[in-house]
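Researcher: We're reviewing a set of sequences before deciding which ones to prioritize for further study. For each one, I'd like a predicted 3D structure that I can look through quickly. This is Protein kinase domain-containing protein. If possible, include the structure in token form so it fits the rest of the review sheet.
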Amino acid sequence: MDDVVSWVRSNDAIRVRHWLDDPQHDPSWTDDHQFTLLHWAAWEGHIGLADMLATRGGGGGVDAKNAGGDTPLHAAASHGHSQLVRRLLQLRAQVDATNEHGNTPLHYACFNNYPETALELLMAAAAAGRSGSTPATPLGRENRYGQAPIDLARQSLAVELRNAAVSLGLDPDRRQPWFPTSVSSSDSFATLGRSILVSRQQSGVTSSNRSTENLAVDCRSPEPPLSPAANLTGPPTLLNRQISRQLGKQLRLIRPMSIASSGFVGVGGGRSQLWLGVWLGDQAVAEAQVAVRVYRLMHNVAVDMTERVARLRRELTQLAPRLRVLNCPQIQPLLAANVVDGVDGGNHSGGLRLTLVSGYLQLGSLYWLLHGNKQGEKIEIDKLRIAKFALDIATGMDYLSRMDPPLGCYQLNSKSIVIDDNLTAKLSLSNCRFPVGPGGLRGGSLQQRQPAWQSPESLAKPEENVNTAAAHMWSYGVLLWELGTQQVPFSGLLPMEVGLLIASKGLRLPVEALDKTAGAAAAAGQTGDGAARWMARLFAMATNELPGSRPRFQALLPVLAKIAIAAERSAVAS
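Model: Here's the predicted structure for Protein kinase domain-containing protein, in token form for your review sheet.
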């Protein structure tokens, strides 16, 4: 990784762009001191490169902190890169972020005597103070040693800053003592995510103790998961060795768990078991908790399996690297996939084992978050978070649609979207439809279809005759309806009934449900009713009966971004 750091520091934008385009590379990579690439671009003052890293999700975000708690804004301010400071602020960097010493970027600009940078930060802090998102005492905010920015400035700069503060309506002599925690808007979402986990634990519904009955309802799996005593490949120690050997990584399994907590959805074509594990030895996921799905694939004893197994391995070899997408924050990558023979001599009489490894997220799927479990347990999600979910999903789908060739095997639905601890919606690529046929292995496709989210043409035509991009847009429209109403699409019908009625009888979701939701919110004086009206319009566009008339995700992103901003302003105003 030293090469990409040197390219960033030397402002070699072409090489950095190629590096970011490679899905094998993680743009949120950090060095031993947790410096991101955006930290180094800000340190050197490379505006164009920093802008590219920030807007493409590189560097872990504009507010990423290194080991000392410094953000890229700290780095830019400490070196007097005023234009870069202005650009980071335009990208909504937190102007009052503090490091481990309690210093803000303004502390550094004053200490190093950069008047233009200090004035830029002062004006931004004043504007943020008027909006209520940060205290309006930027010059008097003390660090943990009792020093405020005005104390660190030279006399000429201190006079200039005092005059500027007065003109901005600030009291330059007002002091704010140091406080050890400073919560940003992104931190508040992380707090909400942790509160959801606490509510799960208090209600007795966690990833480790969900009942088989609840699991069948949540995941619509044709059969319950196996008990720990019914291991597919013997004791956990044996399973550890087999998976570690086939993946080339050191993997330790901890305990069985439910499907809902991992982001894996329904199963087809064989029995399976899901484990929580720790994967070691890989730079991208070192010491990380992972969800490990082990499938036992049934086979047809009447055909020669040798060629079928070889074909399946070739397909996995081609597909799995494309699913290891690390450079899009809205995508949860598949970390590894492999197939091995049964444990009894490799003669296929014990079946085949397909292993999928994905990151472990405790909050589980969007479906669980919106609809809860059989007992009715669910989490209330406000309009602001719904708007941001819609933007996250569209951003991830836009990335997938621009892959060359496009990734058509991903099934877009609320069960294949997982939520991280910061409440970011991520497309779980472990839910792609892995081919396990035809003929030799039963099932044809590993993942069970979810017809409630599928377009009419994808249910009525062969896959090769379907416009994948248009079909995904229809699925996105169903998700908008689901987010807006927080209802299960076509609840009360079996999946097979839903598929038949959509394909042959014209069954559709009612747009009136979204209109009623917007009207009820407006009548109750709730914020975000405008977002609901926009969702109704976007739903109608996305579910156009003519596939060629549906918009592309790239065209929706500016609209969704405006909806999210409007919802955030409404939330702040209320």
